[in-house]
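Risk register update: the risk of archive-format incompatibility is retired. Evidence:
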Amino acid sequence: MKRNAIIIAAGTSSRFVPLSFEKPKGLIEVKGEVLIERQLRHLHEAGIDDITIVVGYMAEKFAYLADKYGVKFVQNEDYSRYNNTSSMIRVLDRLSNTYICCSDQYYEKNPFLQDLQESAYAALYAKGETKEYCLDLDDIGQIQNVHIGGSDDWYMAGYAYFSEDFSKAYAKILKEEYQDEKMRQMYWEDIYIKHINDLPVMCAIKFADGDLVEFDSLDELREFDVSYVEDTHSSLVKYICYQLHCNQSDLSAFKKAIIPDVLAFYFQCKKENYLFKNGEITKC
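Archived output:
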């Protein structure tokens, strides 16, 4: 059975400041390998060469991947105003037996070597409270329902796999839902959840802790790849260190500041709070 892959890489990853101000999150190097290149290598090892990357934010920075890995690109011009449904709507004609991936996820082992026969979504287990999309599973691991938030639950994380039947049904539904402006602000998973009873069954693929890792912030990346404690590979961070006469390891708790059309973020230096705004650093 011929399979293909779609990697969604259009978003700005605003929670990953300041690194995401300088390059897309999927192009960040983790433990010596660029995140999206690691995924592409895994896909090729699994015999999947038909790969489309949906780009938007800093799209030109992904261009080298065409020559290096033979990938194709689809441009999402709406990446800054709509959610990832705006990426999915642009690749409906490419949905078949298809892996749906995000460019910024790290897999310890190659996850694409499994011989999947039905649609699936990767899942991690949350010990204690979580705000993630949690799964109600039956005795054989099929997803019966999805609820936002839970405790001691399996939740949606990582890639999804669409069977051909699932792809046809989902594409039809998304075309209809995308006419509604509100639905354009949603994740593609929200469409799945809304129509879960109208779509072929999807099962959960359970990952152990450490086999699938997602980073929502620089601090989380530092926990996984300690090389970033002393060197964030960020010219913005180096500039801050020069101005404040500190080391990169003294800086933490980076958070985007919501100021329209301004390069701005909050951070801590030696537990003191600061705002970086268009090159100026002020104490909060």
